[in-house]
Amino acid sequence: MSISAWKPVQSSLTNFSVRGMTKKHQGKDKVVVVLGATGTGKSRIAIDLAARFGGEVVNSDKIQVYKGLDIVTNKVSNEECRGVPHHLLGIIDPEVDFTLHDFVHHASLAVGAIVQKNRLPIIAGGSNSFVQALVNDDTEFRSKYECCFLWMDVAIPVLHSYVSKRVDQMVDAGLVEEGMAFFDPKCVTMIMGLGAPLGSLRWMSSSGAKVLSMVKLGLSFLRQLLVKLRRTLAS
């Protein structure tokens, strides 16, 4: 695994003063943004950076922002957070449509609150459209903060092996049961998979048969389904 800077800044991350907490660059407060494909360790490195430099993590994953589906979305557990505060993680009801505008608004508030405490904001998540809307399209955010982008890069064979093992662990932890809880088997014409706000995924059934029978699909197909699903929602 390697980390590469997507956008260099004159004052690097390693120059942050932990004791003095001087996290400014040319008068702007610094914000670290961790990006990368699914399974590359964005959450872990964000927590490591926050623990090292006195920061807090702002979630930018458009699925993990919702309540529930902790296993399906692979949310970090309280133990994995290691005491590092997280923002925008599991706070939105599944039936609510959380838009780009909503993310920009709430993320800006979270970053501002973190900076007010003289701590380092670290944005991490797999939804690049959310990140772009915040750090590139929002002029007010750009005027206040200097961003350091970190891209998590993992060799494809290593990534595939990790994702495969992770899916097995997720299934053992109750992934199928958690997913089935979001479906209404009594619905004949339409069953909303993860709820329309979570990407408008709708499962159609003209025959009236239960749509969700994921166990019978086999783990191989399930792995492909999860990877494709997260890639689609992250775009």
Automatic annotation (TrEMBL):
Gene Ontology MF annotations: ATP binding; tRNA dimethylallyltransferase activity
Pfam families hit by this protein: IPPT
SUPFAM superfamilies xref list: P-loop containing nucleoside triphosphate hydrolases
Sequence intervals crossing the membrane: none
Family note: Belongs to the IPP transferase family.
Annotated keywords: ATP-binding, Cytokinin biosynthesis, Nucleotide-binding, Transferase
Assigned GO CC terms: mitochondrion
Protein name: Adenylate isopentenyltransferase 5, chloroplastic
InterPro entries named among the record's database cross-references: Dimethylallyltransferase (IPR039657), P-loop_NTPase (IPR027417)
GO biological process per UniProt: cytokinin biosynthetic process; tRNA modification
